[in-house]
Structure formats: structure tokens, C-alpha cells
Amino acid sequence: MGPTGEKPEALTRAYQSSLRLASDAGLESIAFPCISTGIYGYPPAAAARVALAAVRAWLGEHGGSSIRRVVFCVYGEEQRRIYARAMGVLFPPGKAPAAE
What's the predicted TM-score (pTM) here? Predict the structure, then answer.
């Protein structure tokens, strides 16, 4: 469960604990909704930056993890554009953590 309102540390923990649980279970992929951006009121652009940064940091720290694919399930075209912009900044071409 994500935070109510804009709380980046709590949102980071939500993503990273989910990644840890998936990795501990030996899963190779995980899909995330836009955590806390609905009725919990987290602004979508800010939440996207936190989500992507949290995932990037976790993957960087856990290179030996079983996780090979992370999917972000977005709600509509506006959120797709938000994530695409944030991905270009946080995961520039050729700089994304390598998946084997």
C-alpha cells in the first residue's frame, strides 16, 4: 500500500519492498500500478519520478536479483506520457540497468 499524499520516502519504500518480495520469491518480472496516484492523491508526475528512481536504485543495488523485467501499468495517455518523459531522464538509452 502506498502513502496518502506526497510522501516520497514512503512511496520509495512501497516500490522497493515489493521488489524485494518478488526477488525473494524468485520471480523474474513484476508489474506496478501507479501507486498512490488515484484516491490517495499523489501527483502523477511526482509519483512517476519516485517510482522510477526507486526501481532504478533497487536494481542497481541488487544486480544479482532474479528480477529481469519491471512493468509500469499506467492509466491512460497522460500518465503514459508522464512515464515516458521520466524514463528518458532516469533511464537514458544505453544507461539502463542491464537485464540478463
Answer: 0.87
